[in-house]
Specification:
This protein is 38% helix and 19% strand. With 311 residues, it is of the alpha/beta class.
């Protein structure tokens, strides 16, 4: 006697009294996905998963203000450079990669370290892709005993109300209130030009650096910074180069804040936008960085503030 019986995804074959049971052929990926939620529910699964400790954006701001320490930040670009990949405005560099790995270990007591909070629930599909692509390498260098600053606190543009946003940026401005600051920035960034971001400082000086591959001139940039008086506070907006520079300046006894994109976020807030927008006379987007179409700045105060041009 021969018959085939299908039950619950299985086939049962009776071949003259010999019974053979066959399961439906599942692909490995489908099996993993179908069982994923159940595996996540199992406490043995969760026990093997580590996530870095990352403060909220608000707590990151308060910590930066209260600590009086320097700040270095990591985004997706820094993670990619750690793995030896190029990014749009910085070529891969072995020395840069090794420095980024070392600083991420968060062992400098004079330096706060910020990372993007993407390794649990990512804020976007792009960040999910970044997390999956770099997790293995980044996890080798993370310090799971310390709590990181959220790198995105300097890029925040969305607020419940205009009043909340005004209060948020008012708190940020307390970082350099009545300070003599030195802004180290890529040419065309022009932090604070056309807005009041640094209007409460005592004085402003600027060191202009290349808008692409700034790390190629790192020794010159650091040398120029070390010429400044010890009471100067450094404001850094120089991509991955700023991450390394913040560490070196902190070790030299300065306070250096890597606040890349803060001016861009503030400009968006002032315009009532919830994402970065084009700002006449400033480089905001990478395509503007590569087009080399930035016009000379007509702001007389800005031009007087420049103490070194390392382009």
């Amino acid at each position: 006697m021969f018959y085939i019986k299908k039950t619950n995804g299985r086939y049962e074959i009776n071949f003259f009294g010999l019974k053979i049971k066959l399961r439906k052929n599942y692909s490995k990926d489908k099996m993993i996905l179908d069982n994923l939620l159940y595996e996540l529910k199992d406490p043995r699964t969760l026990a093997s998963i580590r996530l870095p400790k990352v403060m909220s954006e608000e707590d990151s701001l308060y910590k930066t203000i209260s600590s009086g320490k320097s700040l270095a930040r990591y985004g997706d670009g820094e993670f990619k450079l750690m793995m030896g990949e190029n990014i749009s405005f910085q070529k891969a560099d072995e020395k840069l990669s090794e420095r980024l790995k070392t600083i991420l270990k968060y062992e400098n007591d004079n330096l706060l370290v910020g990372i993007i909070d993407i390794f649990g629930y990512p804020p976007s599909d792009y960040m999910r892709k970044v997390a999956v692509g770099c997790r293995e390498e980044v996890y080798k260098h993370l310090n799971f005993k310390k709590e990181y600053i959220d790198s995105m606190f300097t890029r925040r543009v969305k607020f419940v109300s205009k009043e909340q946003g005004m209060d948020y940026f008012s708190k940020i401005k307390q970082l350099w209130k009545n300070k003599d600051i030195v802004i180290v920035e890529g040419a065309g960034s022009r932090l604070g030009v056309g807005n009041d971001l640094f209007s409460n400082t005592k004085s402003i000086k600027r060191i202009l650096c290349p808008i692409k591959d700034a790390f190629s001139k790192y020794d010159e940039i650091l040398e120029e910074c070390l010429k400044q008086e010890m009471d100067k506070m450094f404001i850094l907006a120089l991509g991955p180069t700023a991450t390394v520079l913040a560490d070196d300046l902190a070790n030299a006894g300065f306070v250096a804040l890597d606040i890349g994109h803060l001016d861009t976020a503030y400009e968006a807030f002032l315009r009532g936008a919830e994402k970065f927008v084009h700002v006449e006379g400033k480089i905001v987007f990478n395509e503007e960085r590569h087009s080399n179409m930035i016009k000379p700045c007509k702001d007389e105060n800005y031009n007087k503030e420049i103490i070194a041009n390392l382009l």
